[in-house]
Amino acid sequence: MIKREELAQRAGVFFDTHPELVQIIEAIVGAGGRPLLVGGVVRDLFLERAPGDIDVEVYGLCTQGLETVLSSFGPVSLVGKSFGVLRLHGLDVDWSLPRTDSSGRHPDVMLNPKLSFKEAFRRRDLTINAMGIDCQSYELIDEYGGYNDLEAGLLRAVDPDFFVEDPLRFFRVMQFLGRLNFKTDKMLDKVCAGMDVSGVACERIEQELEKLMLYSSRPSLGWRWVRQIGRLKELFPELFALTKTEQDPEWHPEGDVFEHSMQAIDVATSLKFGDSARKLAVMYGVLCHDLGKPATTKIIEGRIHSRGHSEAGQKIARTFLRRFTRKKWLIDAVVKLVRYHMEPIIFVDASDAAFRRLAYKCAPDTNLFELALVSRADRSGRNKVGGKQLQKNVLQVDAFIERAKRLEVLYTIVRPLLLGKDLMGQVQPGPEMGAVLRRAYQMQIEHGIQDRDELLKRALQWYRQHAADA
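RE: above sequence
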């Protein structure tokens, strides 16, 4: 994190890399306005992170005055009429006016270009997001101690009374904890422990949880915090059940299933993924992989066992994910990862055909590489506090990857040699042809057949025998 006195230099670098903003800012100032960078971009500059959304709040100009200035640089659209937010076509920046919001779920918004900084920033969620930088002088505007909270690694509400008026902020706290590796102050915990979040749309919760799972170095911090303030059972009962489920200390010295799952998702952030969508599937796969343990854990001959937990976890994972997402592709992928997450260890002496079958079972929702990533996180997330990290069977996961790669089923399935056109004139189209094609593919992956003619011969033999028996 940079020091307060280094901000001017850092801001200068920011504007040097965004020359398209400089002329617009000069025009705004020339028209009598005072533009400030506000919100997350200021926080990210201090933290030396690449800024996300760029927000500029303009004081001293009315909406029409700001629109007039912006329109001299291109087409302008009013994207938030009631909030006074303007966008200049081709520039990913929100231009807004200072405002006050009344209390309530549907607040009355009052735009006021002469509003004081303290009053304008009061409506923001956290102090670390309630700072501004003058776009010309680079002066820091910090009415609520956001800089000190950044230095302390602290999440603190600007105004607790205003904070509770937007229940989405509860889930924003979750993702900021994981992304920034910060802690919360006692007042924020108290506010969030009691605030009503029942009215938050599923899609908006999903967006915040995606940020937690995709962009955090320690996503466990968000989930642990929900447990800490006493709301895990209410909001995510499937995860709460994990806190009541113990494990065999020989295999899991870290403790209960919740602790294991939290360690595993933190490990998973360091793995190499494909695109963000596939990372999301794996991250949720890791989070959900042991959801079946509460229903299957028993003590047998003095040892804790969870036989059948991967099968039992499928339905529970689906229920958990449907609390905040409607993405069928994501749910289906996670359910497959939960079902087969033990296979990379079980497959130590498996046949080539078994690898091909497993790839087929996972497709098209996921693949053996993603399955191996979940297994690796599972194996590595077993760190007893103060002790050495346990990584049992990690070498077996590596061997599973190499074997699947050699068989060319790490990322895909074996492609069928026979298609419907190969059977035309010999098998009646319809259910009979479908049955022959399925049987042919089974023969192909079971016996490793690579010759189309040989496979066709065997498939037709099976068909004729099957027809004769019928």
